[in-house]
Amino acid sequence: MTAINIICVGKLKESFWREAVAEYAKRITKYASVNIIELSESKLSDKPSDKEIEQALMLEAKAMEMYLNQNHTYNIAACIEGRIISSEELAKIIDNASIQGFSTVNFFIGSSFGLAKSIKERSHFKLSMSKMTFPHQLARVMLSEQIYRALSINANARYHK
Length: 161
Known about the structure:
The structure is a single chain. The protein is of the alpha/beta class. The chain has one domain (3-154): Alpha/beta knot. The chain contains 5 helices and 5 strands. Strands 2-1-4-3-5 form a 5-stranded parallel beta sheet, sandwiched between helices. α1 runs parallel beside α5 and α3 packs across α5. The model has no long low-confidence stretch (mean pLDDT 93).
């Protein structure tokens, strides 16, 4: 059974976001073990400078590295410069990772300023959710749903239509 880690920066503050992610996490457990790892978000000023943002992203990346460096993990960075793919393509990526011997698939979601360049460079795949911009809390819900959908596709389940 493949393990799925969703490694994200920040906590979901509103209960409706937490409930949605919890529902999809529960559904995912039918097909894979799932862990949602919430890392601390760096505190920034109201109008942070580019340097301040870069330092915050580096601190967040440092916390992500322990998951990035694990053996047998396939790492996917959620970032705007990633590829926009279909649910079926995501299913194939997860399936192929398992076939290639990866026991865990890590999905990295950064803060509202994104992910550090080092995380993106060391990921096996860069995934864009859309050309549109979404709050990172909603991105976590959308990604959770798409992981569930991809796993249900791989299992030939009825959910995906």
